[in-house]
Design brief:
With 280 residues, the chain is of the alpha/beta class. It has a single domain, classed as Pyruvate Kinase, Chain: A, domain 1, CATH 3.40.1380.10. The chain contains five helices and five strands; from the N terminus they run H-E-H-E-H-E-H-E-E-H. It has a five-stranded mixed sheet with strand order 3-2-1-4-5, sandwiched between helices. It is elongated and about 115 Å long. The model has no long low-confidence stretch (mean pLDDT 88).
């Protein structure tokens, strides 16, 4: 009887867990749809901005510093994880790759975004130049501006920085995301020299500076949205798998409880029959 009570208590506990994982799955799915809409709306704007920057850069006398490549130095890595867990391997993949990249480039500069990668680097005693946490609930353009401005200043002030590489989970669909190492700075020319010449006020250089700043901020914001959409997708998938596992465990426990109950009934019947035979 005591064993049957323990099994039923276990069933109740797993059922409670199942309700939580199902609710978290639904919340993640709702947040993913919202984030996906924002991301799809952001991508065309970022593409249009870089085309404008490219056209302006062709009409200035000297190339913008963000287009000048540096031959010697070390990279600056920006690692982006989530602030929360329960999302499968979303955070651990970034942390693992970050650890490997740091080992390969011990002199590299590091910036982290997200509590999970910050805490992991602390445990591994990896020093960072800056850490941004509590920035994804919800992600704001203001934070993207702050991070982009910091990276741009750091690149200009440290001539030993050859490139700024952002390591994050790029969103593909609700199930799939891929870890991406994307070069933030310096920029690469992406279009051919434009044939059309246009006028700019007050001048080309000022307009290029303003457009470049806006582009870097929007690009950082897009990357933050990509990472957060990937996190919601990973959490939705993980919670769906957890719900399915809970359902499977409940079925096994119910079967086990039925067998235990049947065994108890059989034992009781045997005892009754044995008692009746003894009385005869």
């Amino acid at each position: 009887m005591a064993n049957l009570k323990a099994i039923r208590k276990r069933i109740a506990s797993v059922q409670s867990t199942k309700k939580i994982t199902r609710a978290m799955n639904m919340v993640a799915a709702a947040k993913l749809r919202k984030m996906e809409q924002r991301l799809m709306a952001m991508r065309p704007y970022a593409d249009a901005l870089i085309r404008l920057v490219e056209k302006l850069n062709y009409h200035v006398e000297t190339a913008h510093p963000f287009y000048v490549r540096r031959e010697r130095g070390v990279p600056l890595y920006v690692f982006i994880s989530g602030d929360k867990g329960l999302c499968g391997s979303f955070n651990s993949n970034i942390i693992r790759l970050g650890r490997d990249l740091v080992k390969e480039n011990p002199g590299a500069y590091k910036v982290v975004m997200g509590k999970k990668v910050r805490d992991a680097f602390r445990r591994m005693e990896i020093a960072v130049e800056a850490a941004y946490t509590d920035i994804f609930d919800p992600p704001t353009y203001h934070v993207a501006q702050e991070v982009a401005d910091f990276l741009a200043r750091f690149y200009l002030e440290h001539e030993d920085v050859t490139e700024i590489i952002i390591v994050y989970n790029r969103f593909k669909n609700s199930i799939v995301s891929e870890i991406t190492q994307e070069t933030f700075l310096p920029r690469m020319r992406e279009i051919e020299e434009p044939k059309r010449i246009f006028l700019a006020e007050p001048d080309m250089s000022s307009m290029l500076e303003s457009a470049m700043k806006e582009y870097l901020e929007s690009e950082m914001y897009r990357i933050m949205l990509e990472s957060l959409a990937s996190e919601h997708g990973a959490r939705m998938t993980a919670m769906e798998a957890a719900t399915d596992n809970a359902e499977e465990m409940i079925n096994e426990l119910v079967l086990k409880a039925n067998r235990e109950r049947q065994s108890m009934i059989t034992t009781e019947i045997s005892e009754i029959v044995g008692g009746a035979n003894a009385l005869q």
